Amino acid sequence: MNSNFKEAVKTTYLSILGNTLLAIAKGVTGIFGNSYALIADAIESTTDVFSSLLVLLGIRYANKPADANHPYGHGKAEPLITFAIVGFLVVSATIIAYESIAHIRTPHEVPESYTLIVLGIIILIKEVFYRIVSKKSDQLNSTVLKADAWHHRSDAITSLMAFIGISIALFMGEGYETADDWAALFASGFILYNAYLIMRPALGEVMDEHMYDDLIEDIRKIAEEIPGVEETEKCYVRKMGMMYHVDLHIGVIGSISVEKGHDIAHLAKNELLQQIPEIADVLIHIEPFQTQ
Description:
Number of helices: 8
Radius of gyration: 25 Å
Helix content: 55-70%
CATH topology of the largest domain: Alpha-lytic protease prodomain-like
CATH superfamily of the largest domain: Cation efflux protein transmembrane domain
Strand order of the largest sheet: 1-2-3
Largest sheet: 3 strands, mixed
Number of strands: 3
Shape: elongated
Distance between the termini: 44 Å
């Protein structure tokens, strides 16, 4: 878990550095290149910097050890921080939409052609960032890192929309000056949609929604291979940060002693913790199994 925590923090620092540099590049290019779509993109990248700082805060707090007031640990901080990140996305999308409409109604110059080169580079960089952070989020079971990854993907989408809009404005000429503003407006819709995609799994995590069928199948398979375990019944999994807590009912021969049943339960728990490192704890309930 300590190594997972370090990997998550390292990935978040990478996001913060990348978003800061890209926000500056987009803003400067957008201002001097007469492109509001790029300025809108810079606004989103700026919110990405603050959201990545929230991600860092969430990861650090979520990995605090359990205490008397938080016997299951502090892992639920991750989806709560994810909601805050969604809030940043919604605010940035609203600002972009409002400003895009204002620019559409105001005549302005066609964007400079070099803005396309900058945008092409940015799209590639943001897609690479998305893939790196998304892969890490899957490896570390981190909801908040997954949200950060989608931030990079939404940034790539807004940059792509800007690229299309500026291309139309440049190649179609007079009368199409607002194409990049329309692109920014459409991009705000994509950002809102991404906000929903980020929020949905985080909400399920907070509500302890049933979402871990593959993990439950692995848990049952391992438990049923333990000598003395005749069957597995109920199996519930809840996610806490990057780790899982498991409630498992196993069936043992009803005529064995309480001590023997206790030993079987401990053996099953130890085996699960050893074979699935992402499990933080297992609570096992013994049920009597009657042979036919």
